[in-house]
UniProtKB/TrEMBL annotation:
Chain ranges of the PAC domain: 463-515
Gene3D superfamilies: 3.30.70.270, EAL domain (3.20.20.450), PAS domain (3.30.450.20)
Name of the protein: EAL domain-containing protein
Domain of life of the native organism: Bacteria
Organism lineage: Bacteria, Pseudomonadati, Pseudomonadota, Alphaproteobacteria, Hyphomicrobiales
Keyword Transmembrane helix: yes
Keywords from the UniProt entry: Membrane, Transmembrane, Transmembrane helix
Coiled coil start-end: none
Boundaries of every PAS domain copy: 387-459
Sequence ranges assigned to domain EAL in this UniProt record: 691-946
Amino acid sequence: MPLLFSLFGPGPAQAVESVRVPPDAPAIDLTHWVEKYSNQGDRIQVSTAPGPDGIIRRIEVHARDAGAHPSWIVFALTNDTDEQMERLIVAPHFRLVGSGVIWPDLGSERITEITASQGIPPEKEDVDDADVFRITLDPGATVTYVAELKTPKLPQLYLWEPDAYKDKTTDLTLYKGIVIGIAGLLALFLTIVFVVKGAVIFPAAAALAWAVLAYISIDFGFWAKIFGTEVNADRIWRAGAETVLAATLVVFLFAYLNLRRWHVRASHVAVVWIAFLIALVGLAVYDPPIAAGIARISLATTAGVGFILVIYLATHGVERAVMLIPTWLLLVVWVAAAGFIVNGSIANDLASPALLGGLVLLVMLIGFTIMQSAFASGGVAMGAISDVERKALALTGASDIIFDWDVINDRIFVSPEIEEQLGVRRGELEGPASSWLSLLHPLERDRYRTCLDTVLEQRRGRIAQDFRFHASDGHYFWFRLRARPVVGPEGDVVRLVGTLTDVTDQKNAFERLLHDAVHDNLTGLPNREIFFDRLELALLQAEAEADKRPTVLCVDIDRFNRIIQAVGSSAGDSVLLTVARRLGRLLQPRDTLARIAGDTFAVILASAATTEQIVHLADRIRRTVSTPITFANREIPLSVSVGVALYDPQWHPRREDMLKDAEIAMRHAKRDGGGRIEVFRPSMRAQGANRQALESELRRALELDEIKLFFQPIVRLDDRTVAGFEALLRWEHPRLGRVEASEFLPLAEETGLIVDLGLFAIQRTARELAAWQKALDVNPPIFACVDISSRQILRHDLLADVKNVLTRVSVLPGSLKLELNEGLVMENPEYAAQILGRLKELGSGLALTRFGSGYSSLAYLQRFPFDMIRIDRAFVRQDALTNRAAMLRSLVTLAHDFGMEAIADGAENESDVIEFSQIGCEYALGFAFGLPLSAAEARKLVGAAAEPAI
């Protein structure tokens, strides 16, 4: 490279300030003394520092490569001594200090060549981690140096005394070797532990240790010496190492804290984070500064977020997090110190080596932490355990209590848990086997002695017995003893070893199951099974002792279904509980009270001997139980029917016969209006047989066409014309004559025949209605009402039946009105609302009967799609209410407000009809308009054809 000296010539650069070089200074920092130039092209002209003669010269320096545009630095050195000096100009390739966080300076070759203004040219020495030039300063000379830079950045430039630089390099090399050796041993140790242990925490820690080893090897220059990489390639390796270091730290934190068990999102975040950092390794090949900057940000973020997680989990009792607090706190301090160093706030030459040494120390602390955590549970946690240890571990996991009886010394050892549970002092159960007798239930002491003696005598076998232990608070706890003998060399039993298991909950559950099997769940009274068992014992005793004759009472609540319909099932349960308590207070301990059916109670009476006493007690039961009860601020009247069956050996050879006779007597009491007492008479069996025969005949009545349909006219009060009919069932019995619906419908309801009768009524009414509408074209059209029973609405086939009828028979939409009892609707309003809505969609009309008799229908009325309401005849009767007119007017007004029409049921005379018309009622029915008509008479009334349209 040519060097031109001239006294004149153009050039913008001014003379540089010379730096005096003391002979005893080991190193001088020239970083702040250099002048930097850029955009000078491939040559630069500068003015030299004034020499001893005070003359400023100008020099021109050409770049090594023509056409290049490098950066330049200029500095001057003065040797004012009378001896020649040799010094080293040192520009480190990489310095962690001041490298920066975002787009950090990862280092490379700094200086291409240095040109001196005079004297011996600088000589470049072969050093791996820095650009080193040896210069010579003549005595009294001032030399200006122009350096062509490889990169625009020159973080540091030092002038070293050669021996001092050699000593410094030697000392630092020794330190680097120690640090790398410790890091390598640590990584190798964690890898070996991983191979032995196999837990996920060890490969994570080993990966972190290997990443730290790789990073410090690159930073200390050992990487290039081992693999022979070029200087500029270190930037890629350094960026990749920093990225891997950040990724392995995330992996370690995730594995150590086992974050995946806390929330699945923690796994997702960790996987995405690690995948992102791994992708940065590929980015490091193309743009190392960006990859390194992101890795440094990730490292700081991991330290901060990890510290928050560690503190949070530690406060929630996670032991691993508690053990990691000191180490992670030091990591946060290390990250903070690294931040100050890379930003240049700490610029000491020892800062970078100290920081890397601290990183190795952190990895060492992490290794100690995971070792302490992994092996805290002792040898069992290491993996391989003996068979004895495995059994002991299983026993501990099963939470069983150890039982060990040293037979030779007669001393029992048990785990302290049983003593804590029984509330006795520690060691009270550890003593002779006979000391346990005081704590065992008296009925089980002999069995306890027998078990121990049998094992000792037979020298074999096992014990599997349940014993009750008396606790200090008076309760008994069940424990199951499972033990087997240990036979000594001489064939005698030397120990009895086993476990005690608390089975109190199992015993209690079994006893509850036994109790529930023979007792009623609601009232807790004996059920039919235990009732029959006790009745059989009473009958056997009566056969042996003539003066001890039992009596059976059957007590049934009158109209209990109506109570449920009116006030709901919860009130019905309250009624049953109240009746059970009242009956229990009237009976003696020798008597037996049982609930044998829904609202039927049975009593085995042993405390009353004479007939007068029995009837007197039955009357007390009737009067006591009939006292009204209050539920939800509403008084519910009660009455019961009582059937009495006196013991007769001729009529009651079996237990079932006596209860059956009491039930027959109870039904006779109900048949006469209820609230009565009937004593069984043999003639009642014949009447019961007649009832069974009537049931059998009713089953055949539909097939024999004995069930007939009659129609009660419904009159429009405005013009006194027939607006519709109410369908009524009658039974034309061949022997009994016409049977009213009130006599056979309850029997049909009990036997389930009401479903077939209801379907028959709907089909026949629809056929008659079609004939009426064909003959009578009026607006609004004539309609017909059919009553729906509770069994019908609870059947899922009701919708299909109605749809089938409306499809086969052509009637106008809404004219076939299905009537539902208000109590039936309110029994399950949600279900009823769904069924009624579906019926409305099919084209059926809906009418609500017995309106006003329920307690909550007003709140639900607007939810049901009824067309009309039928005011119950209880509000229509003259003697029902003193303010009947006001009540009727309110009910009619309420119906109109909801868009419904009102029918008054029970119009007996002309005054009733006039009053109903005046209060705004649209329709009325009753005997004022005549008796129910047959199908033929109804067709004749409306002018229809003789035969119904099919």
